[in-house]
Amino acid sequence: MDLIDFNLKKILHINLNDYSYFVEERDMGEWIGGVGIATRLLSENIKKDVDPLDEGNVIVLAVGPFTPAYPFASKTVAMFKSPLTSNLGESHAGGRSATAIANAGYDAIVIKGASSKPVYVVIENEKVHFRDARVLWGIEDSLITGRIIAEKEKGRGIRAIMRIGGAGEKLVRFAGVMTETYRHFGRTGLGAVFGSKKLKALVVIGKGTKRPSDAKSYREIYNKIFELATASDAMKKYYLIGTPVNVAPLNELRALPTRNLESAYFENAEEISGEKFAEFNLARRIACNHCPTACIHLAALRIPYEDEPYFHKTIMISYDYELIYSLGSMLGIGDRNALLKLMHRVELYGMDAMSTGVCLAWATEALKKGLISQNEALAPLKFGDAEAYLKAIDNLYFQPNEFYKTLAEGVEAISKKYGGKEFALAFGGNEMPGYHTGHGGYIGFLIGLRHSHLDNAGYSIDQKAKEDPEPEELVEKLVEEESWRQILSSLVVCFFARGVYTPELVVEGFKPLGIEMSEDELKEIGRKIYLEKLKLKKELGFDLGKMRIPKRIFEVETFKGNLDSNYIERALNYYEKKYYRAV
């Protein structure tokens, strides 16, 4: 049993070109772990102008010092050059991946090169095996791929199986990587990078253990975190109804994007609300490894066999707010069973649900406005028609014509070729999340380093403040929040537990691991990591001045009134001068 060493990081380097690997140990304590060390490792190992689907792209997977120690430190961070945005790609996944990597003895895994044939890689502590995956290549269903590998490889209960479905093989730019059964590296296209490297899966089997330097105080801090999470209301929302609890209140606020944001109110929102899912569809709740809160909500969908009317197969489907928004209200789908079928089809192929829903919503409006023909759309796309969308999802995978090949590159690419940029809802190339809340939300999407609602929670600022602050003040709030989240992402603490892991508690949590650090020092490291990520994002191709703002967001009123383009321009100008030009 080894002591947790905060400063010394153990990094596994894998080269798919020649199926080689080596282990490096180095002092990287100033970057903490997770996002911090992943940013440095990606910057050091990637040629900045590389095509995201070229073998020169690099994947970094990283965990943090809290991973083997405390509850909720259950995320693995992936960083790479994104094939969707053509600059910095970052995605986080829960499940068992983080603890498997930590127990195998590693703080990070760096994957380079590309295999000449399909492979999957098995990491078993100090050993790395390269398995022939030609028999798996072409299996479109990511769930079946996972089951086949699970039957073949040992380590049940302590391993993680990260794999792609057909969308990753087909290089859909928003393909994800599935881990275990219900968790994903979803956003910015890690699955396509796996596919370009002929990497069908990555299996990690970890059997090691670690111990803190001060066992007594460690137990005290552990118990404190556990009590805060289980005895208070801090995590109650996520356990009871989960993130789908957001559907009803956002709809009441007129903040729920509906039918490609033609509206921010969905008349059938109640039918696809978290409360309705919990009442009629919820089958069970499960948790990520090392997490006492079962926030993963699974719905049971019964599908009758064609020739056996009294017999059904039951499929368990993970659902959350983002899927309900993107495949529900955004497409005008108000039937829960139909919505679950769409979720399952997206999961099967291994696509990011938010990008898929936004792309299909754009295609529906483009067809309605005559920008594309029925021959190009193939399916009779119409808001509310789930059967047509199931066919369209199939077409995104099979890519039977030029239209779907381009749509599989994302809404930014499709609107450049076919028009309709004014209602192509992407920010920095990443399809929008489900929040039409106001200036905070949209400026947050624009300047967030992933262009995600999880970067800086601008939507929350909109909902809490009666009036908007000055644009400059808003930018400072967003950057401050995103800088703090770099600390949480470097510890790989789940953002759902951000109410538990305050700066004060993080400082306390460091002490049993042998680290003395003040809250001010901690926040300064967060700012340092933030600026380092922004610098890397620019080096990989991001240009703030070329970022497009969809006109649609100004046309649909928020609960605070219509957005002001001058306000957004002031905010972006301030951000450019103070932060963007500074790195």
What does this structure look like?
- This protein is α+β, with helices and mostly antiparallel strands and 583 residues long.
- The chain folds into three domains: 2-211, Aldehyde ferredoxin oxidoreductase, N-terminal domain (Aldehyde Ferredoxin Oxidoreductase,  A, domain 1, 4-Layer Sandwich), CATH 3.60.9; 239-394, Aldehyde Ferredoxin Oxidoreductase Protein, subunit A, domain 2 (Orthogonal Bundle), CATH 1.10.569; 430-580, Aldehyde Ferredoxin Oxidoreductase Protein, subunit A, domain 3.
- The protein contains 24 helices and 19 strands.
- Strands 3-2-7-4-5-6 form a six-stranded mixed beta sheet. It has a six-stranded mixed beta sheet with strand order 9-8-13-10-11-12. A three-stranded antiparallel beta sheet has the order 15-16-17.
- Helix 1 (34-45) packs parallel to helix 22 (519-539) and helix 20 packs across helix 22 (519-539).
